[in-house]
UniProtKB/TrEMBL annotation:
Cross-referenced SMART domains: AAA
Residue ranges annotated for the ABC transporter domain, each copy included: 2-224
Keywords of the record: ATP-binding, Nucleotide-binding, Transport
The keyword Nucleotide-binding appears for this protein: yes
Name of this protein: ABC transporter ATP-binding protein
InterPro entries: AAA+_ATPase, ABC_transporter-like_ATP-bd, ABC_transpr_LolD-like, MacB-like_ATP-bd, P-loop_NTPase
GO molecular function, one term: transmembrane transporter activity
Protein source organism: Segatella copri
GO CC terms in record: membrane protein complex; plasma membrane
Family: Belongs to the ABC transporter superfamily. Macrolide exporter (TC 3.A.1.122) family.
Pfam families referenced in this protein's UniProt entry, alphabetically: ABC_tran
Amino acid sequence: MIQLNNIKKVFQTEEVETWALRNISLQVKEGEFVAIMGPSGCGKSTLLNIIGLLNNPTSGSYLLDGKDVSTLKESERTLIRRGMIGFVFQSFNLIDELNVVENIELPLLYMGVSGKERRKRAEDVMERVAISHRAKHFPSQLSGGQQQRTAIARAILPHPKLILADEPTGNLDSKNGKEVMELLSELHKEGTTIVMVTHSLHDANYADRIINMFDGEIVNQVEM
Ligand code: ADP
Ligand code: MG
């Protein structure tokens, strides 16, 4: 499903050039759950953002479902992203001014789905992540675990075949972290492909494969 060949990413700021990714080649099969680990600053988020079409690589090729997506324009990347990729971030990235159900419905609003249909699908997915009892609460009124479950509900609502999670339990205590990991694990069992960045070996144990990065490169991979 994901095929990266010799991916490099250089960030150019005024005086400095940062080689975030030096030479990444990686394949992820459909239905696989892969964990990416490595020290802070080694390029994990940069890699995830390229896989998620938030960013283009500086060089190298990226085939997603067999289609070359390495040099697409932002508008083309957005279309593919909305159709097939769900994101989950460490900081939840919910909109503070919207309540739980409104946050969850937002992607459908962008897709032009009618109000009644949006509400029905949001209700189904809220049940799925056990957040229905907080539907009218605002993010500031929720625990970290509830915020992340809301963010996951928003991510899975359009039925993405690929979920990208960047340290999804990074801001959670172990109990809430476990709930989030169980949820991701269920999605994986239903066939969703997952690529997750984590600092936690415990979380990485849910994956089929662990990829260890260092200084912009993959140093080894471990099948679980
Ligand atoms: P990780 O997620 O593993 O902590 P990142 O992918 O965020 O690492 O960052 C890799 C390197 O690229 C770091 O040196 C970081 O400072 C740099 N970097 C990341 N994003 C940018 C950016 N937008 N502009 C400049 N440098 C960046
Ligand atoms: Mg990061």
